[in-house]
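ASSEMBLY PREDICTION REQUEST
Request ID: AP-0331
Submitted by: J.K., bench scientist
Number of chains: two
Total residues: 899
Priority: normal
Notes: Please return the full assembly, not individual chains.
Input sequences:
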Amino acid sequence: MSDLTSLQTFADDLAAISGPEHIRVDENTFSVAPASTEEIAAVLRYANRNSITVGPWGGGTKQSWGNPIHPSLILHTHRLDTVREHTWQDMTCTVQAGCTWSSLQASLAKHSQFVALDPLWPDRATIGGIAATNDSGSLRLKYGSLRDLIIGMTIVLADGTISRSGGKVVKNVAGYDLHKLMTGAFGTLGVITEITFRLHSIPRHAQSFTIASADVEPLGQLLMKILDSHLSTQSLQLRSGSNGFTLDVRLATLPEVIRDQASSLSKLARSVQLEASDADSDVWNARQTHFDQAECFVVKATMLPSDISPIAATIRTLGGTSVTQATGIMTASIPASASSQLEHLRQKLEATGGSLTVLHHPAHATAVASTVLSDTLPLIRELKHRFDPNRILNPGRFVGGI
Amino acid sequence: MLNRSQDAAKLEPKVLSEAVLGDFRAVVGEKGIIVERNQLQTYECDGLTALRTLPAAVVLPRSREEVQAIVRICARHRIPFVARGAGTGLSGGALPFASGIVISFARMNRILAVDIPNQRITVEPGVINSHVTQRVAPSGHFYAPDPSSQSVCTIGGNVAENAGGAHCLKYGFTTTHVLALDVVLPNGEFVHLGSPAVDSPGYDLTGVFVGSEGTLGVVTAITLRIVKRAEAVQVLLAAYNSIAAAGQTVSDIIAASILPAAMEIMDRLSIEAAEASVHPNYPACEALLLIELDGPVAEVDVHMQQVREICRANGAWEDRLAQSEHERLLVWKGRKAAFAAAGRLAPNYIVQDGVIPRTKLPIILEEIGRMATATGLRVTNVFHAGDGNLHPIVLYNASIPGQEELAVDLSIRILHLCVDHGGSITGEHGVGKEKQQAMGYMYSEPDLDTMQLVRCAFDPHQLANPDKLFPRPRLCGEKSGPYTPHPLEVAGVAEYF
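STATUS: Completed
Returned structure:
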């Protein structure tokens, strides 16, 4: 793409699709901001024909996740920012991929509904990017992940084919669940342009509690006891910080029931010699703060719930801090010097059915590899090959260099 | 859809060579293979009994290794295979392929591992759905997806069809509860999809495999999530003079931010049939709404109070709370017997499985009524009202010439009606053989081509449950465009209708 004439042709061709005011040239990277699914299809058809690599871009909040790559064309989705349909009586909504999470939720809140997910950086992160990275937070314990909340999707394949899967009804088993394949695929199989979600009513009453302990073990026991209880637990997480460990619990039920449940929770806490107290409201944003530490590794680790407290203890011995949802998803920041112990931790997690993925790699640290499930790699490669034979969509970004 | 020309295949089983049969025998032993015509007949259909095809052979493996060896033989000789659990499916998903084999999972029915603290269980595909719940009941847990056939259907079949049930309104479908799968791919390779921990790295292959109707491979073990049983369960029966009023109640309950465990509606014909068949003591009415609430005792009490008020406000003239576990089970028994009970209303019937946005319920039911009257057939309705999943049951008498065709046509038009209103052709029964053509009504060619990309990545030779789910056979790599006869069609191997 260094040839000046071809650069000019490239810019002209893209301008013909999306208008010159929506094209940007910056050194060797072009960017284009199409206005519709059809324009995205035209851009991809063009890129595919000319073997131009493309990186889809929403809010740009998680572009550093995955293997570092430098696509020739950045495809911005911010002009696809409309909530197209909110059929509140049916509790579904259809929204374009470039809409930010917060603006979708603000729109749904008019009818006291929401997509029951609490992803990172909701003010900037877009629907498409959140789906492409399969982000999830503390609400997952009660409501499930995006694979449970997304009921339909429009995608554009590398060759410009516009394809829809699922639909607008929650219960639907017609055909393959392609939207599940796209969720968490880091834009390597197609560009998501529109998503239909199932919605939930915003809980009217919720109360958060915190139980602190210098020792992690009783908190681990308490976490398992709460999972096995009849409490209306909406969120449950184990945090570690400089002062020891805390377990945060959010109960969501009717006001007349919460009082009873709060005393049941206190009783459970006392059974491991600990006290429950009211929690600060910002404890549920704890995950986000881990990404502020550029000099640390930031990792996502997955594990069985019973492994949460021992792994949290291990992270602490490495000088790191962590927050782990009771579903078994940990976000941890670990000093750059601990890279060899991280390798060891990854193996330990893999041995018990878990995984470790490095989300942020500090500048001068020894490289740490993420988990790759080797037996499915040939199948994953074959899927990539069928969907994107010219490897133009985020090539190399995904697990195993897909 | 149903087509009598299928019957041609049932006359004589296709024959596999003695050498190939010998290969299968070497894997599963003499007792693990069926080739006798009269024994093969047990396997000629599933719950969709209108379609029957004799397979060339049935093999009954005992282990993952045997399954893998069988699939390898199939791959080597390009023999199509259809996996089968209990054969209770209603869309012909387990209908054999005439020149292929059936792999029956009847002998792979062990529970492999139970992890109560982490709420997980690992089972072989032949394990019966309700046995999972039985196994974990002592610790207060249950397996949530509950298709009406749960006392006989298998987890392997549930995974293939992404089975639902009345309680998925609150608890989700099979796919919500599957964490990991051991799979033998159509080329004979063995892979682990997903993991006991959530979010395993890589594409969500588990998500795409569940509900793929046996077209992507064969499952040999499944790790499921189990759920803590609620502290309290209450079931309410509300009787109405019209289905519309019952439907409105459902919308009002959901608008009041109450999420029941289940909400089911039955119409007069279904109520009468259920009453005659299992005597659930239902009130005689035009529409019966069955609501199950579960959760903490105090919460269920408050919500049930609200629900009863909503029922009465919508004209329920009786709202009866089941007073004991026995009464509750009886209420459910009546509902779950609804399909079988339809046999009391007519000699033959077709159960459909359309889904509509919940708010379209009154319009659609009125339209179905009009269509039935115009055809001169009776249609009775039983449905999962909370998630808009209709089960219209088209009643007919196959011995009256022309009536079966009318019934088939009506049931297809009902599905088209669901699609026209933004719904789906199937909520839990699957596409199978039955609704192949309706897939082409619901999805466009590019949508189906994209699904084919997945099929071809898993199964380039299309040996796993061939000629199901998609509207017509298509070779991997074939592009959509103007209709061209498929090579199999030209060769007279397959027929497109």
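REVIEWER COMMENTS: Chain A is about 30% helix and 25% strand.
SIGN-OFF: pending second reviewer
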